[in-house]
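Please produce the structure of this protein holding flavin-adenine dinucleotide.
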Amino acid sequence: MAPIETKTYDYIVIGGGSGGSGSARRASGWYGAKTLIVESGRSGGTCVNVGCVPKKMTWHFASLNEELHAARHYGYDVPENIKFDYGSFKRFRDSRIKQLNGVYENNWGKEGIDLVHGRARFVEPKVIEVTAADSTETKIRYTAKHILIAVGGHPIVPGVQGAEHGITSDGFFEIEELPKKWAVVGAGYIAVELAGVLAAVGVETHMFIRGDTFLRKFDPMIQETMTARYEAVGIKVHKQHKGFKEVQLLKDGKGADKVLKLIGVEGDEIEVNELLWAVGRAPEVEDLHLEIPGVKQSRSGHVIVDEFQNTSVEGIYALGDVTGQAELTPVAIAAGRQLGNRLFGTPELKYARLSYENIPTVVFSHPEVGTIGLTEPQARQRFGDDKIKVYTTRFTAMFYDPFPTEEKKLNPTQMKIICAGPEEKVVGLHILGLGVGEMLQGFGVAIKMGATKKDFDSCVAIHPTSSEELVTMR
Ligand SMILES: Cc1cc2nc3c(=O)[nH]c(=O)nc-3n(C[C@H](O)[C@H](O)[C@H](O)COP(=O)(O)OP(=O)(O)OC[C@H]3O[C@@H](n4cnc5c(N)ncnc54)[C@H](O)[C@@H]3O)c2cc1C
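Below is the modeled complex.
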């Protein structure tokens, strides 16, 4: 067998997702480092292909149904049963994603980054081998002084008998025909978002959660209001659920033609057309052979890094979902750019790193949720009860004025500002309601700059909006 050729780069990036792309572009595009991206799947990673982008498009698709319903209250003659073609929306969504895959690859090309499609694994401490994704399955080895692991993660399928008959969030984006009735297992933001979109277009939705509320990592106000809101609009939330022991495929097919029977550990049974496992994500490290360089991992398999994204091995770095740190696209991109700055930038950037404090995030539920900083229990624990002041408000946004009273109750807007110390520095902000996703970004800047409640109050309100409440709370 001919010896396998080894090519040398300044920077090898394993994974062309959010973090890998952000880092490679900074290293090559800004600083001219000879950079290679190795990507085993579709360019752009989770966010573009099976995450943020198709999710948000589907959220728009679903939100339109809610708006059409609202239009009736404003006097529009909207028929009761508006037909929609999910298949055609899905085809549009797929084509848009394909376009984005091309945009990613074009940008890499323009910035002088080499791309190889294939799966990477370590074969020596600083050498990776890539098996080409095409039919040749050619193996090429690459080495570099700096290697970044940005391989992301994948959804977990629990070890339940017949679990493979259900889908994960990846499979959700392959659905061509909507189920009539479906089950969502999980209480995190992905479960809440995907349950929300299908419920909003009339799919009978059953959520199975272990506790009494979902979004358990969020402020209690968010957990309680959102769980109650989902229940109020007809989502059946099965609380304190002990899990399933078996999934039976009663009938194979698409949409309403697929029938599954779920059998709970306590003997409870339910028949549905689809089952979504949204029980968490695991790092995509199984076949990387991290033991060869000796990169240390946590018990969950995540790559352990310090504040500069260094792993336990010199010259090998990790960021994004594979590290389990704030698993969000902009976090991975920002960490990647800072690493690029630190490794290849000017000397004053040699301590460049991402601050993981005060990262704003939005849940695209119905309605949206926005959050930044500490939850109330976290703030109380960190500063002490007597050092915390909490401002809250709950109201119905003007948009719902023409709605009947009963329906108005289903659409709360709620806000909480958590302040610490005598200067009332804002250490947490939690909001839910119409448009809060767009609202949060600007407040995020203020909080990142260290805003106090007085700073919030000193900003003249924009009237009439919901966000004006954030600068007028007493
Ligand atoms: C349903 C869903 C919705 C989401 N919504 C949002 C949202 O609204 N906002 C938000 O900020 N975040 C969202 N996220 C999270 C976001 O997608 C991730 O945090 C982000 O993509 C992580 O980027 P990354 O670079 O770490 O990994 P990824 O983007 O996953 O990229 C990793 C890449 O590495 C490749 N790879 C893996 N192993 C190898 C290997 N051995 N060799 C070569 N290539 C390899 C993979 O194919 C992949 O392309 C969502 C995620 C999901 C699942």
